[in-house]
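request received
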Amino acid sequence: MTSAIATGRPVRPGAARPPVLEVSDLRAYYQTRYFGIEREVRAVDDVSLRVAPNEIYGLAGESSCGKTTLIKAIAGVIRPPLNIVGGTVRFRFEGATLSVYESDPGALAAIRWRHLSYIMQASMGVLNPVRRVRSSFIDFAYRHIARPMPAFWEIVVGHLERLHLQPEVLDAYPHELSGGMRQRVTIALATVCRPEFIIADEPTTALDVVVQKGVLAMIREVQRELGSSLLFVTHDLAVHANLTDRLGIMYAGRLVEEGPTADVFREPQHPYTRHLIASLPRIGDTAPKKGLGGAPPNLADPPPGCRFHPRCPLAMAVCREQNPPLVAIGPDRRVACFAVTPETAS
Amino acid sequence: MSSYGAYVGKRLAQFVLVIFIGINIAFFVTHLTPIDPIEESISVATSFGSTSPEAIEMLRQSLRELYGLEGTLWDQYLTFWQRVLVADFGPSLSAFPAPVSTLIWNALPWTVGLLLVATLIAWVLGNLLGGLAGYYRDSRLLRLAGVITMGFHPIPYYIVAFVLLIVFGYLWPILPITGGYRMNTARGLNLEFILSVLQHAILPALSLVLVGIGGWFMGMRALVSNIVTEDYVTYAEYGGVDRNRILTSYVMRNALAPQVTGLAMSLGAIFNGAIITEQVFGYPGIGKLLIDAVHAGDYSLVLGVTTVSIVAVSVAVLLIDLLYPLIDPRVTVT
Amino acid sequence: MLTILRDLLRYNREFAAGTALMAFVLIISCLSFLSPYSPQDIYLVPPDVPPSWAYPLGTTSRGQDTFWILTFAIRNTLLFGFTVAIISRILSLIIGLLSGYLGGAVDRVLMSINDTFIVIPLFPILVLFYFVMRDSMTWALLALVMACLGWAYDARLIRSITMSLRTREFTESGIFSGMTTRQIVTQEHLPYVLPIMFSTTMNNMNWSIGLEVTLSVLGFTNINTPTIGVMIYWANQHTALVAGIWWWIFFPVALVVITFIGLFLLAVSMNEYIDPRSRLSRMGGAPS
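response:
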């Protein structure tokens, strides 16, 4: 059986240092009150994770599992009706710690783009449609590269050329570039200040496979050159297998499994992960795939206990009552399942 | 740049269509009704004294020729279009023998000036306030501004002008309520004249602005509320771009394009409002000219003003359309 | 649709206010059926009497009771506005639906014509119309002409709704599941279209009543039928303001302004309900 999984990824230098990102017990809910009806959608419920320097952390899960909300919460771009109900998000840049929800907006604005940047999905309009690309570079990067204009442009052009982009893209309007080109320009924009932490939210979805490959290669190259950490979010497991060092699986607003990517692929512990891995196509395997019955739960009214239990083949009585905590089952391995860790049930 | 050429071509074609349909409507309204404008004019002209039957018959004949009502309907149609294309509407009955074109030419600058100033103020102010209101949703000051501007908006121009007339004409007479400038002031580029013009324009412009501003406010606020959720605004927030810069360069700038389109579409309605307001304040523009012409039974003047109105508004719309690609660079690609 | 109205009434302040205002106006207009005087008669009561117990809103210089004339005036004005709105709804529906469903060349031609009517200034044309019709101008004719000129703005709106409904997923799934066209239109499309028809009707009424008042004040309509505009016209003819008969002007103006604001509030609140994003922003966050 051959698979797309790489084995034995070398440990990157810096992986043992204190984490660049530390999320603790984060809770982010959408709270609405309209026509007399109050609703609370628990999009991110009690999530904790760590990302080390120079590490690519992948976040996987199906649509509406809360990945995008988690990203917004980590980046601190929250707007009502989305509210942070509990927990902390801490970054560590150049020896100093910054807690996103306990700092003033000025401190937060200072780290944006210089230390923390963001690559969004390759949608039509991530760049200002009525301005040329060069003005986006000025808006996002100029205040961090405190040099006179000619020197600034030299740096930008040099950066573009290193990423195999023509300097002419600077003079184009966003709608004049193709989707793949726009995404590459966005990646260049996100990395021009050499940030320590980059969040990438489905950067290759909505691109065709050939372009996808080029964009992934670009991301890999940039990460290698800058030594930044990457939080890479996508539902596409094949991309995770190709790119990430560690992998976290999200389901219904909770983190259900986490570990080195190769380990998670080789030995998935959580029933949900097992199903995801089993459904991946393998060359030479002609057995029919079975879908998982049911649908992801309604996060406004989630099932009691473990949120996966209505669809879980291993569901037990305790799963209907208590929520399994995310516990360590190895040096860098966590699972939230009573079937794997029955001793955690009280 | 040939795509811009194609765009210009389309806009020009629309422009020609508007004028064609509009002026045809004017023709059919006047020529296909059972009422004979000649008899109308005669009845008004002879209402001040007795006139001999021969004189009336001569008048009838002259009017028939003047109004281009000789011959079959098709002949009349051709005559009509011939005259429109050279802007010859004949002499005005109420100000005989002054040609209609001269009267319109004298009155048009007043209307254009009033319209330009009032529309610009309403559009700029309305968009500014509306944009801020859409961005800073919690500001009580902006919400109050919204209530005030939107309170005036549904009220027709006539009523607002009328109320202003009452307030500043009778209750608190500090502003002039008739005329375009003070009588006996020498016209020309001297300070006294200019000040007088400005002073007389305040009330008409104010009523136009009060009614108009609410529409722009509402539209801009809605636009901005939507744009704020767009990807490029969210991205700029992730990027820590300065909030003022986001407001101007990302939000307002993108909301501008639809508002410019909206301006082109509303010019007809604003023009309506302007000529009504002129009537209330006796402002010497083509609105006053039109109403007075109706009361005087001056057929050629009424027709002339209607035709010129249609052409003027169409030209203004065309100009705005041609400037639009400067604001939205995406339009030439389609 | 009824549940929408009920919910809006309960939770949307603007809608409730608009309904209250319009209810007030409608009640006054219905009182016209109880009037002891005929609207066409003049010099029935002592003229120029200020508001008092006997005549709560005073009397006019033409010897009419302001209050009872006002009831007729607002009734006729509302009727006129409503008639224009109905006729122009039909026109804009037909054109909007044709354009939206057929698309292609039909759409382009119809929209070019549509935009023509948006751009052309309508007031001079209406004035021209009055000029040639003079005394033969009836209310029905005026309503018809205004409806034929005023459909353009809403036709465009309906066209874009139609286009988006045509391609929406639930339409296609409806077709695939074997629903007839009539079923699709009534069960799937109507819930979207009805609120929009409601708000455009309110807007159109504002427009047509505004135009009626303006034309009547200038004396360009049939001045023997009492409407709000005609009332103000006669007040001006008798130089009511200069003579100090302020109640002849104040009450019709006040009542019609209430009408405008009421219709406007209804239209705006319905619009806000339709647009899901404005609904979202209304939903604020609960304090955490």
